[in-house]
Every structure is written in structure tokens, then in C-alpha cells.
Amino acid sequence: MIQLYNVYKTYEGNTPALFDISMIIKKGAFVFLSGPSGAGKSTLLKILFRWEKHDHGQVLVNGMNIGKFKESMLYLLRRNIGVVFQDYKLLPGKTIFENVAFALEITSNQPRRLIRSRAWEALKNVGLSHRKDAYPLQLSGGEQQRVAIARALVTEPKILLADEPTGNLDPDISQEILKLFEKANRVGTTVVFATHNQDMLASGNHSVITLNRGRIVDTRVLT
Ligand SMILES: Nc1ncnc2c1ncn2[C@@H]1O[C@H](COP(=O)(O)OP(=O)(O)OP(=O)(O)O)[C@@H](O)[C@H]1O
């Protein structure tokens, strides 16, 4: 569960990126964050992962008041969250299998054999186990994004945050990527998916929270 109460964020010398934001995202929900460029979508996601700290208000993630977290406690938050970005952020010098396995290596001390089988399973879930020895740049954009999703999901996070994950992809591939997020959501992962792609917003039967200039201007909640 994600709870925000009267959250404000202003970057230095700028107008507010988030202004008096309150929302509750229930466990297991699938929520789109929409709104034009500069609306505050990325800022909201960054606050949920504590890349950015909010100025005022309260942010609770899985019951943890993350505004009060010291750096040394952030792992408690981040081990429950997977993140996917528009530009994939894969490590170019590692194979896609190594990219996915690496996410597990740095967050758990499981035996090597278990890490390898979980990484393989995660790649299989996104339909890419047959390309496991390829390097990221040998794959298409859609394939690279599928690897990024496998990497985000391999740790079995409770929450999956996505920042314009289909921003660089064509419409058909975008729908495939959306389906992977929906698949993760069906097995219980809470998904918060930022996009300003109107086709995507219309295609999914999901809640939509719309931001504009840092404020919530519309909420469509499906139960
Ligand atoms: N690091 C930063 N320093 C200063 N201002 C920032 C920073 N990051 C974002 N902003 C400002 O905060 C506001 C919200 O930006 P944000 O990136 O959250 O919007 P967004 O809805 O994600 O936009 P986009 O769809 O273009 O990614 C904008 O006015 C932006 O210029």
C-alpha cells in the first residue's frame, strides 16, 4: 500500500513539482499516472523510491514512513520495489542474463545456483530466455525493455514503478510491454505506471491519476 498525505516538492529555484498531493494506492492495484510533460509524474515516482525527498507531508510505503528514513535504511524500502525506465538502463558490458542475475546478486545472498535459476525464470517470463547470452545492444528496444522488466521483477518486489517505459517504443510493442506489467499485477504486484500515452491509458482497464503542474487534476479509480 502506498499512501501520500499533503505532499509537496519544489526543486531549487523552480515552481512546485508537486503541490499538496494526497492519494492512496491499494496493495495489488494497477494505477496509471498521467499528465503532460512537467506534470510531476517522475518526481512522484522518485519520491516513492526515495531518490528524491519530499519537502512536506507524509509518504508511507508498505506502512513505512519513508520521509524519515536515513540512507542506511533505504534498503528496507528498495528491496520491495522494482523500477523500469524509458531508457532501459541495462549494463552494456553484461549479457542480458548477467544483467538480470546481477539485480539478485546485489540484493540477496542466495546461492549462485538459485540466482541463476531465478534469473533464467525471469527471462523466460518475458519471452527472452533463448537470447540470454546476447548483450543489450544486440537487442531491439522492445526486447531491451523486456529485459529491464525481468530485472525489475526477478527480486519479486511488492511494488513495480515504471517511468514512461514505452516512451521509446512503437504502439504494438508498447502494448506487449503493457501486458507484461499486467501479468505482474495479476500475481499481486502493485504497479504504478507513468505515461502520457493516450492509447495506453485508454487500452487498460486501470485506475488513472492525472497530474498537471504538480497538482492532481483528475482521478479515475477502478475497484
Ligand atoms: N532535478 C530537477 N531540478 C530542477 N527541477 C526539476 C528537476 N526534476 C524535475 N524538475 C522540474 O519539476 C517539474 C516536474 O518534473 P517531472 O520530471 O516530475 O515531470 P514529468 O511529469 O515526469 O514530465 P515528463 O513527462 O516530461 O517526464 C518540472 O517543472 C521540472 O522542470
TrEMBL record:
Organism listed in the record: Nitrospina gracilis (strain 3/211)
Domain ABC transporter: 2-223
Domain of life of the native organism: Bacteria
Protein name per the record: Cell division ATP-binding protein FtsE
Alphabetized SUPFAM superfamilies for the sequence: P-loop containing nucleoside triphosphate hydrolases
Cellular location(s): Cell membrane
Stretches of the chain forming a coiled coil according to its record: none
Topology relative to the membrane: Peripheral membrane protein
DNA repair found in the keyword field: no
Gene assigned in the entry: ftsE
Function according to Swiss-Prot or TrEMBL: Part of the ABC transporter FtsEX involved in cellular division. Important for assembly or stability of the septal ring.
Gene3D superfamilies: P-loop containing nucleotide triphosphate hydrolases
UniProt record similarity statement: Belongs to the ABC transporter superfamily.
A GO term for molecular function: ATP hydrolysis activity
NCBIfam families: FtsE
Swiss-Prot/TrEMBL keywords: ATP-binding, Cell cycle, Cell division, Cell membrane, Hydrolase, Membrane, Nucleotide-binding
GO biological process terms, semicolon-separated: cell division
Subunit structure comment from the entry: Homodimer. Forms a membrane-associated complex with FtsX.
Family annotation (Pfam families): ABC_tran
GO CC aspect terms: plasma membrane
